[in-house]
Design a protein that fits this description.
The chain has 13 helices and ten strands. It is α+β, with helices and mostly antiparallel strands. Helix 8 packs parallel to helix 10 and helix 10 packs antiparallel against helix 12. The relative contact order is 0.11. The strands form two sheets. Strands 1, 2, 3, 4, 5, 6, 7 and 8 form an eight-stranded mixed beta sheet that branches. Helix content is 50%, strand content 16%. Strand 4 and strand 5 form a beta hairpin. It starts with a helix and ends with a helix. The protein folds into three domains: 98 residues, Butyryl-Coa Dehydrogenase, subunit A, domain 1; 106 residues, Butyryl-CoA Dehydrogenase, subunit A, domain 2 (Beta Barrel); 157 residues, Butyryl-CoA Dehydrogenase, subunit A, domain 3, CATH 1.20.140.10. The protein binds flavin-adenine dinucleotide. Flavin-adenine dinucleotide binds next to strand 1, strand 3 and helix 12.
């Protein structure tokens, strides 16, 4: 911990405790929604802190925070349920590296000042875990426009977004399978909302299915080179996997502290339940697993800040995403158990986290896919590089 990180930790913890957490139950009971003036206030406060550009350079108008400091912030944001911490869009550092000047002006800056929101469309009906192999969406260059066709599943936050990051295979008539990443404005003609499925959690951010029918986008909306789409998506994955791990640590911390408080108050059989060793065992395991996870997270963030080889880093981001999401799910399960019947009520933080944290073992690559990445890296790069 550095004095700067501690300062961020304190500031964001207070933001979460004072501004976000008080709205959790309201959101839970209202399909994830809170009053629009409160939502606006949360966004304004996040922008005032500079959170949308926390990893962007000072020249680019951001805070230029290290990955370590960024994840200290995300850890605190993870303490709130119902995705209330998604009150701002995040411009990620890799975007600053690869966006053209036009894209920085029209998309990156607006993400940072809150005038535009983004969503990320990779998954398809037949392509989830196997992103590289089975994406069917196509992009064909005709004149000075790309024509996009395809269907994208589970596009998180698309209901609030102004544009999609969309991954498609370039169609050029000679079996070229290059994956490219595009910025697709939501107002473009040919974008059709197919379905908005319901999920276990109660978020105002939907995960809808969209069809892209001959959507024409200007050539200036391709990110970088045609063949680099997958590498940008991987940069996105690395960032998101660290973010998920940090939020899982924050969630576990909140769960342990709420369950401990309850255990100290609740009486059963003439004693406080905190005195029962079976309860102590659940709390002790949770604290120990959280402590180990945080250490690994912080170490991997420092590896990132020390510019470790990106392929090794990629596997380490999988390691921490896997470990933290599995840990937080175990902690949530124990917290529900400690709360007893109260832990099964939607107004209880443990019940909400129990449902919400489940997705962290699935999205941004399932736990199985993280294990495959880690094992492949072990074979290719050796144990000494992973630990
Ligand atoms: C709430 C939610 C929000 C999401 N948001 C987005 C989003 O914003 N943008 C986006 O693009 N996607 C999003 N996704 C999609 C998510 O990333 C995928 O669901 C996930 O990657 C798994 O893909 P799948 O659902 O097709 O499962 P599948 O790939 O069909 O996997 C099914 C099962 O098989 C296992 N499996 C698959 N391949 C292997 C293998 N080689 N070895 C061992 N086991 C394997 C998986 O681990 C899983 O257990 C979201 C998903 C959810 C649930």
């Amino acid at each position: 911990m550095t004095p700067k990180a501690l300062e961020w930790q304190k500031k964001i913890r207070q933001f979460v405790d004072v501004e976000l957490i008080p709205w959790e139950v309201h959101a839970e009971m209202n399909n994830g929604n809170i009053p629009s003036e409160i939502e606006k206030k949360h966004q304004e406060l996040a922008i005032k802190f500079g959170l949308p550009g926390m990893g962007i350079s000072k020249n680019g108008g951001g805070l230029n925070l290290s990955m370590f400091d960024q994840m200290i912030i995300w850890e605190q944001l993870g303490r709130v349920t119902n995705a209330l911490c998604w009150c701002f869009s995040e411009a990620q550092d890799w975007m600053e590296e690869v966006f053209s000047d036009y894209q920085k002006k029209e998309y990156l800056k607006p993400l940072m000042n809150g005038t535009k929101k983004e969503c990320y469309a990779i998954t398809e009906k037949g392509s989830g875990s196997d992103v590289n192999g089975s994406i069917q969406s196509t992009a064909e260059l005709v004149g000075d426009q790309y024509i996009i066709n395809g269907e994208k599943w589970y596009v998180t936050s698309a209901n609030k977004a102004d544009f999609f990051f969309l991954q498609a295979k370039i169609q050029n008539g000679n079996n070229d399978q290059n994956h490219a990443l595009f910025i697709v404005d939501k107002e473009n003609e040919g974008i059709e909302l197919i379905d908005t499925p319901s999920f276990s959690h109660t978020f105002s951010h939907h995960h809808s299915i969209y069809r892209f029918n001959n959507v024409k986008i200007p050539i200036r909306n391709i990110i970088g080179k045609e063949e680099d789409g997958m590498s940008y998506t991987q940069a996105w994955f690395r960032h998101e996997r660290l973010g998920i791990a940090a939020r899982c640590c924050g969630a576990a911390e909140r769960l342990i502290s709420e369950a401990t408080k309850f255990a100290k108050e609740r009486e059963s059989g003439g004693s406080k339940i905190k005195d029962y060793q079976l309860i102590q065992s659940m709390l002790a395991d949770s604290v120990t697993e959280l402590a180990a996870t945080r250490l690994l997270l912080y170490e991997i963030c420092k590896d990132h800040d020390n510019k470790q080889d990106v392929k090794i880093l990629h596997a380490k981001c999988s390691m921490i995403k896997l470990y933290a999401s599995e840990m937080a799910n175990r902690v949530a399960d124990r917290a529900v158990q400690i709360f007893g019947g109260r832990g099964y009520m939607r107004e209880n933080v443990a019940e909400r986290f129990f449902r919400e944290l489940r997705a962290d073992r699935i999205w941004e690559g399932t736990s199985e896919i993280q294990r495959i990445i880690i094992a492949n890296s072990l074979y290719k790069r050796g144990l000494e590089n992973l630990i």
